[in-house]
Design brief:
The chain has about 300 residues and is mainly α. It has 14 helices and no strands. It is globular, with a radius of gyration of 19 Å.
Length: about 300
């Protein structure tokens, strides 16, 4: 897969994640976060199942043979990280507002290069650090955080950002070895669904009628986000390393703001425009500066 196609996958993934934030917030009127995520990711699993059989069934065995132990270990890890990240984010929306949740979630952007550099001793291109700063500034303006107050739920979102960062990092490691984006997307959706339903059985009241009341939000978040977007993430990180990928994913805040403006008639103020500008600037810098330097060295 070419880098251009990977970049398009990352952008589309960010768009779906951004618009799904609305469904996540409004989909818990009658059900809890574990129930919502359990049904949501099971819907994503069912959506991906025939697609996997159609496009990847023939090569699964040969790909897994490359290193079966690593495949099982990393697949389980990305499933766990995705479960914890989505649950904490979903649960936090019960205790804080979307503005705070969106702002603290974006902290996965600096966490990815920090973890890669200090934990995995991976070299990071210098352009990543100013790009991260621009994304954080953009997130601050985009969410009108200056008008919000810190709530208990914000700590949940901050912790969830750690698991988002780990998920992005290990997705990159896994897809680098195994060219099975659809199958991996299927497996991680199943892991999240099973864990969410298991814990939901003990800690929430799972009522079928209440689930049906949230069917439109669940279908949107399940098919588009749980099924398509997280699979697009795997396609994207085939040719884009984790740190610049995290910066591109921060565009979900831009898309969420635009969606709220178009669909919910929310006011798009000067702060929101500035936020979009800074995040876009961070994304452009992270992608263009390395290309510019490489071309300059070849001259």
């Amino acid at each position: 897969m070419s880098k251009n196609l990977s970049l398009a996958s990352a952008l589309l993934c960010s768009f779906i994640w951004g618009t799904t934030f609305i469904a996540q917030d409004t989909g818990m009127d009658t059900i809890g976060p574990l129930t919502f995520n359990g049904v949501r990711f099971f819907v994503g699993f069912l959506f991906l199942l025939p697609v996997v059989f159609l496009f990847e069934k023939g090569k699964i065995k040969n790909e897994v043979k490359k290193n079966k132990e690593i495949f099982i270990k990393y697949t389980f890890m990305i499933g766990i990280f995705l479960f914890l990240g989505t649950y904490l984010q979903q649960a936090a929306l019960q205790f804080t507002d979307v503005a705070n949740a969106a702002f603290f979630t974006i902290f996965y952007v600096p966490m990815v290069p920090i973890i890669l550099f200090f934990v995995f001793s991976k070299s990071i291109h210098w352009s990543i650090w100013p790009s991260v700063l621009f994304c954080l500034v953009g997130g601050y303006f985009l969410t009108n955080f200056s008008d919000a107050t810190i709530r208990l739920g914000d700590s949940l979102v901050f912790v969830c950002a750690i698991f988002w960062a780990l998920h992005i990092i290990y997705v990159g490691k896994l897809i680098e070895i195994f060219n099975l984006p659809l199958f991996l997307g299927l497996l991680q959706s199943l892991i999240v669904a099973l864990l969410s339903i298991f814990f939901g059985y003990f800690y929430e009241s799972i009522i079928f009628e209440n689930i049906l009341n949230e069917k439109f939000e669940i279908l949107y978040a399940g098919i588009l986000s749980g099924g398509i977007a997280f699979t697009l993430q795997l396609y994207a990180q085939k040719n884009i390393s984790a740190a610049p990928a995290a910066i591109i994913y921060s565009l979900e805040g831009v898309f969420a703001t635009i969606a709220g403006w178009i669909l919910l008639s929310q006011i798009l103020g000067i702060n929101n425009v500035l936020g979009c500008f800074f995040i876009l600037l961070g994304v452009i810098l992270s992608q263009m500066l390395p290309i510019y330097e490489n071309r300059k060295l070849k001259i």
